[in-house]
Design goal:
By secondary structure, the protein is α+β, with helices and mostly antiparallel strands. The protein has 2 domains: 7-201, Jelly Rolls, CATH 2.60.120; 211-314, Orthogonal Bundle (Arc Repressor Mutant, subunit A), CATH 1.10.10. It has 12 helices and 11 strands. A 7-stranded mixed β-sheet has the order 8-9-1-10-3-6-11. The protein has a 4-stranded antiparallel β-sheet with strand order 2-7-4-5, with no helix packed on it. Strand 4 (53-57) and strand 5 form a beta hairpin. Helix 7 packs across helix 8.
C-alpha cells in the first residue's frame, strides 16, 4: 500500500510543471535587463550565483535586492527590471551560444554579477492554480552556496541543486541540456518547499501550508478532494470553530476553502477527461459529484467549455507540459 502524498506533491502531480534554463548572465556594472510580461502559462525565474541584483516591479512599484543564493520566481509572469543599482546607463550586452545554453556578457569586470535565467511552463488549465494561489513573487534563499554542507534543511538542498546547475552550465557534457532542464524543473518544487519553510512565507498556498493550524485542511482537500467536505468538518480538523476557520483561511489564502476544493476537483477532472476510456459520468463521480449535470455545469463554468469539448481538444493538441523552444532574452 503506497503512502499518501503531501499537498505539494499532489499539486505537482496535477499540474506537471516543466523547466528550461536558458541564459547565464555575466555582467559588470553598470548593467540592466528589462523583461516584459511573460507569455501565458510561463513563469520566469532568476538565480543569483554571485553579486547583487536589484529587482523592480513596475506594476506594484516594489524594489527588492537579491544577493548570492537568492532564487526568485514570478508565478504571474509579471514584467520586471533587473539592474545593478548604480543608476548609470548600462553597458550593452552581447550574446554567445554555448553548448547547452546562451551566455550573455557586457565585458565589464566591475562588481561582477553571475546569474542564471530561465522559465517554467505550466500547461492549461492548471496555470490558474498557479495564478490564483501563488503570490506575484516567490523568493527562496539557498544557504552555503560556495561550500559543501549537510542536507538537513531545504535551503541546503537548494544550494546543492544550484551548485549542480552552475557546474552543468560550465561544461560541455553529454546530455547537458536535458540535465539542465531536469534540474530546472526540480528547482520549482524545491523553491516552493524553501519558501513555505521560510519565516517570511508569502501569501497563498505557501502561507497556508506554513500555518500549523490550517495545514490539516489543506492536506485534506488535496488528499481526498472527492469527499463531500463541509466547512464544519474542515474546521474541526484544524481545531477551530467554523467562523474562525473561514476567517483565517480567507485571510491567508485570499480565497475560500470551497474555492480551493472546486479548483482542485476541476484540475483533476481536466486530466481524467483526456484518458480515452474515461466517461464524463465516471470522472464526475471520481471528483466528488453525484450529479453529472452539476459536474457539467461546474466544469463548463470553470474551463469555458463542456467536458466533451475539452476531451476532444485534448486529443488534437501537443502533449501536456511540452515547452516551446527557448529564445534569447533581450534588454
Amino acid at each position: 500500500m503506497s503512502s499518501p502524498l503531501d499537498w505539494l506533491s499532489q499539486l505537482l502531480e496535477m499540474i506537471k510543471v516543466t523547466g528550461q534554463l536558458e541564459i547565464r548572465c555575466a555582467y559588470g556594472a553598470p548593467w540592466r535587463i528589462a523583461y516584459g510580461h511573460s507569455a501565458a502559462r510561463e513563469i520566469p525565474y532568476h538565480v543569483v550565483l554571485q553579486g547583487v541584483a536589484i529587482l523592480e516591479d513596475p506594476e506594484d512599484e516594489t524594489v527588492r535586492e537579491l544577493g548570492a543564493g537568492d532564487i526568485i520566481m514570478l508565478p504571474h509572469g509579471s514584467a520586471h527590471i533587473l539592474h545593478d543599482g548604480s543608476g548609470r546607463a548600462p553597458i550593452p550586452a552581447y550574446f554567445k551560444q554555448a553548448a547547452n545554453l546562451t551566455i550573455s556578457e557586457n565585458g565589464s569586470d566591475e562588481r561582477a554579477l553571475d546569474m542564471l535565467c530561465g522559465r517554467f511552463f505550466v500547461a492549461p488549465p492548471h496555470d490558474r492554480l498557479i495564478r490564483d494561489y501563488l503570490p506575484t513573487k516567490v523568493v527562496a534563499r539557498a544557504t552555503n552556496m560556495d561550500q559543501q554542507s549537510g542536507m538537513d534543511r531545504p535551503s541546503d538542498q537548494m544550494a546543492a541543486l544550484v551548485r549542480l546547475m552552475r557546474s552543468e552550465t560550465s561544461m560541455d557534457s553529454l546530455g547537458g541540456r536535458a540535465m539542465l532542464n531536469a534540474l530546472s524543473s526540480a528547482l520549482f518544487t524545491l523553491a516552493l518547499r524553501v519558501a513555505s519553510d521560510s519565516e517570511e512565507a508569502p501569501t497563498g498556498l505557501l502561507a497556508l501550508a506554513g500555518h500549523p493550524r490550517l495545514a490539516p485542511a489543506l492536506s485534506a482537500i488535496f488528499t481526498d478532494p472527492a469527499r463531500p467536505w463541509t466547512l464544519p468538518e474542515l474546521a474541526e480538523r484544524c481545531s477551530m470553530s467554523r467562523a474562525t476557520f473561514m476567517r483565517h483561511f480567507q485571510d491567508k489564502l485570499g480565497r475560500s476553502a470551497y474555492d480551493l476544493l472546486t479548483d482542485v476537483r476541476m484540475s483533476l477532472a481536466s486530466n481524467e477527461l483526456k484518458r480515452p476510456s474515461a466517461t464524463t459520468e465516471a470522472v464526475a463521480e471520481a471528483v466528488g459529484y453525484q450529479s453529472v449535470a452539476a459536474f457539467r455545469r461546474s466544469f463548463t463554468q470553470w474551463i469555458g467549455m463542456t467536458p466533451g469539448e475539452w476531451r476532444r481538444l485534448g486529443h488534437t493538441q501537443p502533449a501536456e507540459g511540452a515547452a516551446p523552444e527557448a529564445e534569447p532574452a533581450e534588454d
